[in-house]
Design the sequence.
């Protein structure tokens, strides 16, 4: 595990690219979750958050909540952001390396959904035929 | 004062339309010369005549009875009579 | 330089030309020449010089940091800032893409006689198919080499014997006697058409696709300088040919079809055919780059997997973005919106968003975390400041000039 001693959360973590063990892009750090345990203790970074809802909330909480409610009515289930435990971060450099593999990660659920529902039905998509 | 500005704007607009029609007439004169020299195919002549006709139809009400309108109409008719173009169709469109 | 590097520079110059001249630069230069003679040559020169510096910087950023520009903007400025150029480029790139598709359709109309709006969907489909099945090399080199047909404008301008002293006089700004609003509107449109945001983004993404590194800094500089200069020269040739054919006869450009005559007058029927082919290829290449560019911006901004060399199944969201864009872009043309009016409007609108695109250069190009010891010199920073001020001034006047001076 390789993390610097001193970390500037906004400069070094927020909006940075997340990659898996094989350097496959997983998304970006859209939010950081801090844990507050009482007034006398310092906040602790527990998770990073990825998802459109998190990004929307950074721009406008009111609009994000409205969009979320509209999405629920339209039947969109996968709207909640994906949270990744801070302990899963293997390395913090120019990118943040997670101790996961892309094909199993919930961060790529949207990509997999699109692949299964849309892309694979269009000819010439590069999928190898099963023999 | 507002009326004077409004009238000035209207006359500016008419002047602009007049310049557009004069420019189109000269375009078609150049096109005629190029057709004579066989520098352009008949499909292009048709396209230019159609484009000129569209411009004329769009703006002719702003210059009723103006000489620029008559000159452009005459030029469009003249080009429309060329080989391979539909004379009646051009005149009907005008 | 090694022979391989010289070959790469030559190829880079060719690809720069292929992306430089497109429907916007052709339309604005032809209108400028027809209406104001050589008086707006300075706008092409100014736009080209600014673009050379921006292109060199975006290539240097990609070579040293291996970060394309949109990714660097998101990381350095955060999502609050990134959302602005993202939204702006989404709208403007869509308008410009529609204009480029219109340019291809007009080229096909000129050659076949079939009206341009019938070609909108087939052209969009071919653009999509080339991106779906092609690789970055095919798009970068294949289409761009064919874009050398735009050299027909240089031949047409030379054949008209314009006199170098006349062209030289146009390098210095001079005010016209009348039609001042139209003059400045065209100046803004020419600079907007030249300093295209998509060119800057696409260049840096392409450098990452080609895996540039520190050894590519010199070829990058040469490609930016020579390639963009060559592209600017062709733009000036469009303007000059328009002066010699239209300005002398007091003809102004109201439709795209008229522009063909600036090539047919000096070059005859073959000039007409090559003009049609050049228009198709130049606009087709630009449409490919624009579609890829917007997909790059989204994918890099949101951290998706991206590359034109990946199969669609390996980069689904990246593929979806350009698919949506291409078919949305063909709609205005399909519904018969005049391509020339759309082009002039989108070029002026590009001027509105330029400050958002150029400002990040001032910060990122001086950040040692990205560029190590290859940060900007004082002169380069001065150029960026100048371009930001120019872009801001253009953004302020673009809309009033559109109302006063646009058709």
Sequence:
């Amino acid at each position: 595990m390789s993390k610097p001693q001193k970390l500037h959360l906004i400069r070094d973590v927020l909006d940075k690219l997340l990659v898996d063990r094989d350097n496959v892009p997983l998304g970006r750090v859209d939010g950081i979750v801090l844990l507050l345990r009482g007034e006398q203790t310092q906040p602790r970074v527990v998770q990073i958050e990825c998802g459109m809802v998190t990004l929307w909330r950074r721009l406008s909480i009111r609009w994000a909540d409205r969009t979320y409610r509209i999405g629920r009515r339209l039947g969109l289930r996968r709207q909640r952001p994906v949270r990744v435990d801070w302990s899963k971060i293997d390395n913090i450099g120019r990118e943040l390396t997670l101790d996961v593999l892309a094909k199993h990660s919930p961060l790529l659920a949207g990509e997999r959904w699109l692949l299964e529902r849309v892309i694979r039905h269009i000819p010439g998509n590069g999928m190898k035929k099963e023999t | 004062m507002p009326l004077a500005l409004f009238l000035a704007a209207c006359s500016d607009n008419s002047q602009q339309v007049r310049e557009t029609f004069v420019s189109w007439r000269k375009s078609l004169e150049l096109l005629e010369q190029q057709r004579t020299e066989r520098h352009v195919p008949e499909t292009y002549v048709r396209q230019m005549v159609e484009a000129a006709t569209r411009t004329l139809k769009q703006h002719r009400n702003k210059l009723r009875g103006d000489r620029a309108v008559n000159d452009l109409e005459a030029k469009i008719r003249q080009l429309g009579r060329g080989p391979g173009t539909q004379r009646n169709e051009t005149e009907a469109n005008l | 330089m090694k022979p391989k590097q010289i070959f790469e520079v030559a190829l880079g110059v060719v690809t720069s030309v292929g992306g430089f001249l497109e429907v916007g630069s052709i339309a604005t230069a032809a209108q400028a020449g027809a209406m104001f003679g050589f008086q707006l040559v300075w706008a092409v020169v100014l736009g080209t010089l600014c673009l050379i510096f921006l292109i060199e910087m975006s290539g240097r950023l990609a070579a040293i940091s291996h970060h394309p520009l949109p990714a660097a903007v998101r990381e350095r400025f955060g999502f609050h800032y990134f959302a602005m150029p993202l939204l702006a480029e989404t709208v403007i790139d869509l308008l410009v893409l529609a204009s480029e598709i219109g340019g291809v359709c007009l080229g096909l109309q000129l050659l076949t006689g079939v009206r341009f709006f019938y070609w909108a969907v087939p052209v969009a489909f071919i653009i999509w198919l080339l991106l779906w099945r092609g690789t970055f090399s095919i798009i970068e080199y294949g289409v761009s080499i064919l874009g050398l047909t735009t050299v027909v404008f240089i031949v047409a301008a030379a054949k008209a014997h314009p006199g170098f002293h006349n062209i030289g006089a146009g390098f210095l700004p001079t005010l016209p006697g009348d039609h001042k609003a139209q003059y400045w509107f065209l100046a803004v449109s020419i600079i907007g058409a030249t300093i295209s945001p998509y060119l800057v983004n696409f260049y840096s993404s392409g450098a990452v696709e080609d895996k540039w590194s520190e050894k590519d800094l010199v070829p990058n500089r040469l490609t930016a300088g020579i390639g963009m200069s060559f592209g600017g020269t062709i733009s000036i040739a469009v303007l000059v040919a328009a002066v010699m054919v239209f300005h002398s006869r007091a003809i102004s450009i109201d439709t795209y079809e008229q522009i063909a005559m600036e090539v047919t007058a000096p070059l005859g029927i073959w000039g007409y055919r090559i003009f049609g082919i050049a228009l198709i290829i130049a606009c087709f290449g630009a449409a490919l780059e624009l579609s890829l560019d917007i997909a790059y911006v989204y994918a890099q901004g949101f951290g998706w997997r991206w590359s034109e060399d990946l199969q669609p199944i390996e980069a689904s969201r990246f593929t979806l973005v350009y698919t949506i864009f291409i078919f949305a872009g063909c709609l205005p043309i399909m519904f018969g919106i005049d391509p020339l009016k759309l082009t002039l409007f989108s070029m002026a609108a590009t001027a509105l968003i330029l400050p958002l695109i150029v400002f990040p250069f001032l910060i990122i190009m001086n950040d040692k975390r990205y560029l190590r010891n290859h940060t900007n010199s004082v002169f380069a920073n001065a150029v960026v400041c100048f371009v930001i001020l120019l872009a801001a001034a253009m953004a302020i006047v673009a809309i009033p000039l559109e109302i006063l001076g646009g058709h």
